[in-house]
Amino acid sequence: MHIQEQTYYDVLKVSRTASQAEIKRAFRVLAKKYHPDTNPGRPKTAATRLKEVMAAYKVLSNERERARYDVLLQASQAFSPASRTSHVDSAVSQAKKLLEDLLSGEGQRALETYDHLKAQEGYDLERFLDTRDYLDCVFLLAEQLERAGRDREATQLYEELYSREKDPPRHRYFFEEVEVRLKKLYSRKLPREARTPEEEIACYKRILQFDVDRSEKAFILKKIAEVHLKVGQTEEAKKVFQEALELKPGLKGTATIRERLGYESA
Hints:
By secondary structure, the protein is mainly α. The protein contains 13 helices and no strands.
């Protein structure tokens, strides 16, 4: 077995003395993180990382295979203290420099560093920052990407933060602010960038998964109905628009869609 510079313990983010329960728990967290469904913006990188996670778990979850791996690991030159320290120090310094640039307002330089790091196959920023620093970095990166007009990338990072802080008893450092920003992106920016009507509708439907009041939900349903109508899906448009009116009979800005669907003037 060839032992790479990054060990299976590194891949699963556990110590070499980790119990089987810790290894299993780490695998479940990472398998969810790198699942294709949660990484629509970077499928190739996620697939690579998921493959690494599965390979690591296959060995470390088997006591006999793990013991054999540990022997080879101990003898491997790639695991020498000098080479490991050099590699980790370099990766940590890049991650910390990225966070420092974001905190100091050097947004453009931070994005250049971020793009450089992303181009490195398998590079995972979270491995080189503690949890709070990583969350800060992700939020600031998303903010900077949004300023740069890279809305899809910003949304992906905001979604990661939202997902991580959604379920209690997690600390909610950014939850409320991220929800506001995601609603704005899905309602105003991403629909304009949508490549298909289905993609545009998916943006609006994502908003409905957040905590929205009746008026907000009615407005979003109206927008969905308008997209259906735009592509000739009259019956679907009428069904969704009727749902909007049931939520808010006096919904504003409906004259055009009422006329096209054959409703009487409000």
